[in-house]
Design goal:
- The complex is a heterodimer.
- Chain A is mainly α.
- Chain A is 72% helix and 1% strand.
- Among the domains of chain A are: 49-120, no CATH class; 124-262 and 301-418 and 484-638, no CATH class; 643-668, no CATH class; 670-708.
- Chain A is globular and about 110 Å long.
- A two-stranded antiparallel ribbon of chain B has the order 1-2. In chain B, strands 3-4 form a two-stranded antiparallel ribbon.
- Classes of the chains: A mainly alpha, B mainly alpha.
- Chain A: GO terms for molecular function: mechanosensitive monoatomic ion channel activity.
- Chain A: It is found in: Membrane.
- Chain A: InterPro entries: TMC, TMC_dom.
Chain lengths: 1032, 181
């Protein structure tokens, strides 16, 4: 990302170099010039330039206090700046000012709106409060809850808008048909508490359940197809849930950068990212500490046999819970058969038992897990897996038991049908069957058992051949005692709703008992107890994030399972979730301490969502199975009288669509189309899978490459630094011919080897630059090279700013003189001077390279200039002008002194690297420190050591990955030169930074010093934005 | 104020922070001392609280004025979307990713040698976990940590390595405080 950014910046800068140049120029002019010169005024026709200039001047005014100038200079500069602003501001159209002001206003407004919107995010403040007390782990539970709440809202809207409200408005009113009427024998007890409690009576015959919905194909004047809508919405609930879940997961995984999981920094992360800085509560801090301890503790003694025992125990309890649920459902079935009146307990037995199991078993697992003595993390994982299995087992055993019951109902029904079909003509069977049955069943019977037997008796008598099915029918007739009871869908819906309600009650009870009262007890009785309640046995309730999340998942699974049979279940769940949110948040804030084993659950974690998806899939299965497998009840619900529920779709297509559509659908749904479509899907999946695999592979390779790229240069340098002659063997990549002579330059080795590996593209340019140099062209020529144009412009033009003597005297500092000095040095050294400039230019070429292969060359680029053959020269010549030009005007003597130093230094370095560069460093950096560190409140360091320290800090940017490796490898004999080179590198760093900045190639490199010193344009521009807002 | 200005955009934010500053300033002398910071509960319970407080103080001083306060806080300003695009050619603001990271790095780098050594890591670990873990275990954890992060084999974590380690951590979001205004 960074390199691309660098590239972008580079390009953008290249695109409009003149602008930047002018910018810098104006900067110089404003400071160095006493008068506005022709250059500036000439360019000032461009409003953009004027504006930038004005902004710059304003910035100068704002910052003038920080400048290391004398007061007179400051005053002068201030006056000049004001003049410029006054002079040019008038030329600028007012609109820009308004624009800026408008932008600021808009930003303020957006912030305000943003703050305002927070008020509309449900529970945002509450969650923030919890987050601030207990950290983001606990908050993630509430965020997850809120998200589920959102889903349920949508589901509620879907069912309400398309099913419930149409049914209420346009459907047949209550009491108009048999399926919408409470049987007379139940009328008396319809309002009894226990009837209502077990969702019987009025509730049973209401829009809450499947059975209430009418079977008319169209209702109301508009002809709303309710049955079709019912079916489609039932499916849409699942479809929507799937889509929203997958979307969220995809978004999360995009955020969480999970792709790079093979780079493992578990320990580092645990150490560096362990603390949750949002925690502001001592107890939370304590448990966070415990969590950190847990997370880094190495796992204890392995006790295999105990673990086996524990697993067996867990399996046993799982099996126990499942069989218990099955048994309870079975028992309730038998009870209903045998007893006429069921007690409250018997009616709610199933859901109570399920809820109890759901509540207690996790704690049992917790205890068992203590046996195993796993590492806490593993324990938590096991615990979660077990609880999930338990919840799933519960739901499944419940639904299987229910479907079993349904099965027996339909068997009975089948028996009835068979019976009836025996003596009624099959063609009119359905019509006639309904009538007599309803008559029969709806006849009021004071004692239900007896009339039932009596009604069955004739049938039995009439069809002796069916003794076997009849005996079965006899067994199950209990359910058929009332026609509405035959409505198995309603029955399932009732059970699910009941389960949901009881689950809610148990949650409330457990929060109150286990958390609240325990908290009260511990808190207030602790003083009078014989042991410390707070730290020993009962303690405070823990907020077990993972288990609570699992409970939410389970709850949602229940909703999905029952939503088809009880359309109001999502609505109920919405209420439940609201209640849960308040209850839990209250409990957390009042009486909980966070769980010590914090599950690493950030917002971008897909763990919860994966569980939810798993749950959704598994909960969809039974519903779909029931829809597909079972025949809808005969006399209730929107699909009554049909063979299968989904027949409604084909029926609609047949009747309400044109014939061609029906035939098209017929073809589409025929195996001819379906099979190839499935095949195609498989192929598509396979194809995408393989693409993903290949992308992963290439991703990996790229990563390896970048790693290599970061390692290679340092490795090479290790090799080549001590004995320089070997270097050339490390420069093979380039199309090497013209390099051969360069091998004669021994002192340049490390630099070379760096450059050498940069890339062949670099070599190409290098050659080019070499040629341009070997022709001993002057600056003008070089400038004509497009590659370097900007660079030189930036260096030269400001320096040659007309009319300033100081600048003029330093004019030769631009590119050409650099060459000069090199030559000068060469004449001293006599060490193959001719190749110096090559190297020098090569460096430039390399910098250009960045554009092409930013990632790999970055280090090379950053390094090469540092150790470049004429570091000093370039340092002062490129660095200085780019530093605040003002500074230069302030310390001209420093710079002039520098030249000598530089020269001295370079020679030294190239020879034996023995001369301490202190002198040079001092002079040189002094100017920097004075100029920049001081005004920036940075401690002014001593010169040499701090430099190296600065250098260290300069390594920080991630881009310079290879660099630090160089340092330690330097041999002791090299230490001096290492120090010097570190100085130099440091200087070079800054310089390089500036160079690259000026060319905007270097991805804004992170060095703080460099950054801060690297001033001028960039800072200006950033400051501009502020000034735009503040000053206009 | 240039730097601060470019990091803390809104005037009202500065005002807000100033009122916070004055409310923290119990001595009412225009500067904050370490004790003032230690009264903040989040810092008081934070095992690294001292380090964070240290980060507010320039070297060798035990008072921080409002400007220094702001400069430190500017590290925590969230990076806004429009900034990401515009700072292509701007200087690096204090709240940039690398500055945030560097701030974090300095929390661990006790002796300011720009390396997190084993000893420094041990100290941090000791602060975080208290006495619950034996020394050799902590030592092995520190070793593992360094071993994981260390790329140049100097048995210490440099900033570069630190950045590499935290490459996948969304520091931009985590080290952000949305100042009220």
């Amino acid at each position: 990302m960074k390199p691309s950014k660098a590239c972008q910046r580079y390009r953008s800068v290249r695109r409009k170099p003149s602008q930047h140049y002018l910018y810098q120029e104006s900067l110089l002019l404003s400071n160095l010039d006493d008068s506005f010169n022709a250059d500036e005024t000439g360019d000032s026709n461009d409003p953009e330039q004027i504006f930038q200039n004005i902004q710059f001047q304003k910035d100068l005014m704002a910052n003038i206090r920080c400048r290391p100038w004398t007061m007179a200079q400051k005053l002068g500069a201030l006056r000049r700046a004001k003049e410029i602003v006054l002079k040019f501001e008038g030329r600028l159209t007012r609109t820009r000012g308004y624009q800026a002001a408008g932008a600021e206003l808009w930003r303020k407004f957006a912030r305000l709106a943003c703050n305002f919107m927070v008020m509309f995010i449900p529970w945002e403040m509450r969650i923030k409060k919890i987050e601030s007390h207990f950290g983001s782990g606990v908050a993630s539970y509430f965020i997850f809850l809120r998200w589920l709440f959102g889903i349920n809202i949508v589901l509620t809207i879907m069912t309400a808008a398309f099913i419930v409200i149409p049914e209420l408005i346009a459907g047949q009113p209550f009491g108009s048909t048999a399926s919408k009427t409470i049987p007379k024998e139940h009328m008396a007890s319809a309002q009894d508490l226990d009837t209502v409690w077990s969702l019987g009576g009025y509730l049973q015959y209401s829009v809450l359940f499947y059975g209430y919905y009418g079977r008319e194909r169209r209702i109301g004047r508009a002809g709303y197809r309710l049955p079709l809508a019912y079916f489609l919405v039932g499916m849409a609930v699942f479809a929507y849930s799937f889509i929203i879940l997958l979307k969220k997961m995809a978004k999360n995984s995009r955020n969480s950068l999970a792709s790079a999981s093979n780079e493992n920094y578990t320990f580092c992360w645990r150490v560096f990212c362990a603390w949750d800085y949002l925690i502001g509560n001592p107890e939370a801090a304590e448990s966070k500490t415990a969590a950190i301890v847990n997370s880094i503790r190495v796992s204890g003694v392995v006790t295999v046999c105990l673990r086996v025992v524990a697993n067996i125990l867990v399996l046993l309890s799982l099996a126990g819970s499942i069989s218990l649920i099955y048994f309870v459902v079975d028992r309730s079935q038998r009870l209903e058969q045998s007893k006429k009146e069921l007690t409250l307990w018997e009616k709610n037995e199933v859901s109570v038992v399920v809820s109890l199991v759901t509540m207690l078993a996790p704690s049992a697992f917790d205890l068992i897990a203590a046996l195993e003595m796993y590492h806490p993390r593993t324990t938590l994982r096991f615990q979660l897996a077990r609880v999930l299995v338990l919840y799933l087992g519960n739901l499944y055993s419940l639904i299987i038991a229910l479907l079993d019951k349904v099965n027996s109902m339909s068997t009975e029904e089948a028996a009835t049908k068979n019976n009836t079909s025996h003596w009624i003509d099959p063609t009119i069977f359905s019509a006639t069957r309904m009538a007599p049955e309803e008559e029969k069943w709806s006849t009021p019977g004071p004692g239900i058992g007896l009339p039932r037997n009596s009604t069955w008796a004739p049938e039995e008598a009439s069809v002796p051949a069916y003794t076997l099915p009849l005996s079965e029918a006899n067994k199950t007739t209990v359910y058929t005692q009332r026609p509405q009871d035959q409505c198995w869908e309603t029955y399932v819906g009732q059970e699910m709703l009941k389960l949901s309600i009881i689950d809610m009650l148990f949650t409330v009870a457990s929060v109150l008992l286990i958390d609240f009262f325990r908290g009260l007890f511990v808190r207030y009785l602790s003083d009078y107890w014989c042991w410390d309640l707070e730290s020993k046995f009962p303690e405070y309730g823990e907020f077990k994030i993972a288990e609570n999340v699992l409970h939410l998942v389970y709850n949602q699974g229940m909703i999905w399972m029952g939503a088809f049979f009880s359309p109001c279940l999502p609505a109920f769940n919405v209420l439940k979730l609201i209640g849960l949110m308040y209850l839990r948040s209250w409990a957390v804030l009042t009486c909980n301490v966070p769980h010590q084993q914090v599950f690493r659950a950030s917002r971008s974690n897909n763990f919860y969502l994966a569980m939810l998806l798993f749950m959704l899939f598994l909960c969809m299965l039974p519903t779909i199975f029931a829809i597909v497998r079972y025949k809808p009840s005969l006399n209730c619900g929107p699909f009554s009288g049909q063979e299968k529920m989904y027949d409604i779709v084909s029926e609609t297509i047949e009747k309400d669509f044109p014939a061609w559509f029906g035939s098209v659908v017929g073809y589409v749904s025929s195996p001819v189309v379906i099979l190839p479509a499935v095949l195609l899907l498989f192929m598509l999946v396979y194809y995408l899978q393989s693409i993903v695999r290949s992308l992963k592979l290439s991703n990996q390779q790229l990563r390896v490459q970048t790693q290599n790229a970061s390692i290679a240069p340092s490795v090479l340098c290790h090799v080549c630094q001590p004995h320089g002659g070997a270097v050339w063997f490390f420069l093979p990549q380039g199309p090497g011919a013209p390099r051969v002579p360069r091998a004669q330059v021994p002192h340049n080795l490390s630099y070379r080897c760096l450059r050498g590996r940069s890339s062949s593209a670099g070599d190409r340019r290098e050659n080019r630059s070499c040629s341009s140099v070997t022709q001993t062209k002057r600056t003008e020529d070089v400038r004509s090279e497009p590659l370097y144009r900007k660079d030189f412009q930036q260096m030269d033009r400001p320096l040659r700013g007309p009319g300033l003597p100081a600048v003029a005297s330093r004019g030769p500092r631009s590119h050409a003189p650099r060459y000069y000095i090199i030559n000068e040095r060469d004449s001293h050294q006599k060490t193959h001077p001719t190749f110096w400039p090559e190297g020098h230019f090569r460096m430039d070429a390399l910098e250009d390279l960045v554009e092409m292969c930013p990632r790999t060359t970055r280090q090379a680029v950053s390094r090469a200039p540092q150790q470049g053959p004429s570091p000093q020269l370039s340092e002062e010549e490129e660095g200085a002008p780019r530093r605040e030009p003002v500074e230069r005007s302030l310390h001209p003597q420093c710079l002039t002194g520098l030249q000598g130093a530089a020269h001295f230094y370079v020679g030294d370095r190239s020879e034996s690297r023995t001369l301490a560069p202190e002198y040079q460093g001092r002079v040189h950096f002094k100017s920097w420190d004075d100029g920049f560190e001081a005004p920036l409140d940075r401690p002014v360091y001593g010169h040499r050591k701090p430099r190296s320290r600065n250098f260290q800090s300069a390594q920080h940017p991630p881009k310079l990955r290879g660099k630090p490796k160089v340092e330690p490898s330097l041999t002791e004999s090299d230490s001096m030169s290492a120090a010097s080179s570190s100085d130099q590198q440091n200087g070079g760093d800054d310089r390089c930074l500036q160079v690259t900045r000026s060319q905007a190639k270097f991805p804004r490199s992170v060095r703080q010093l460099g950054k801060r010193k690297a001033i001028s344009r960039q800072e200006l521009i950033a400051d501009l934005s502020d000034l735009i807002c503040s000053n206009v | 104020m240039g730097l601060i200005l470019c990091s803390l955009v809104s005037h009202s934010q500065i005002t807000r922070l100033y009122s916070r500053f004055t409310s923290l300033d119990k001595g009412e002398n225009g500067t904050l001392s370490r004790e003032d910071f230690q009264r903040i509960p989040e810092l008081a319970i934070n095992p690294l609280g001292d380090r964070i407080i240290n980060a507010f103080f320039p070297e060798g001083e035990d008072q921080v004025n409002f400007r220094g306060f702001m400069r430190t806080l500017a590290h925590f300003r969230p990076i806004e979307d429009n900034e990401k695009s515009k700072d292509v050619n701007g200087p690096e603001p204090l709240n940039s990713r690398s500055n945030k990271l560097h701030f974090a790095f300095r929390l661990y780098d006790l002796d300011k040698d720009d390396k997190i050594s084993r000893d420094e890591l041990l100290q941090v670990l000791r602060m975080m976990v208290g006495v619950n873990i034996s020394d050799e275990q902590l030592g092995s954890i520190a070793d593992r940590t360094i071993q994981e992060a260390d790329q140049d084999g100097d048995s210490a974590i440099s900033f570069t390595e630190f950045v590499k380690v935290l490459e996948k951590v969304d520091v931009e979001q985590k080290m952000s405080i949305r100042f009220l205004h």
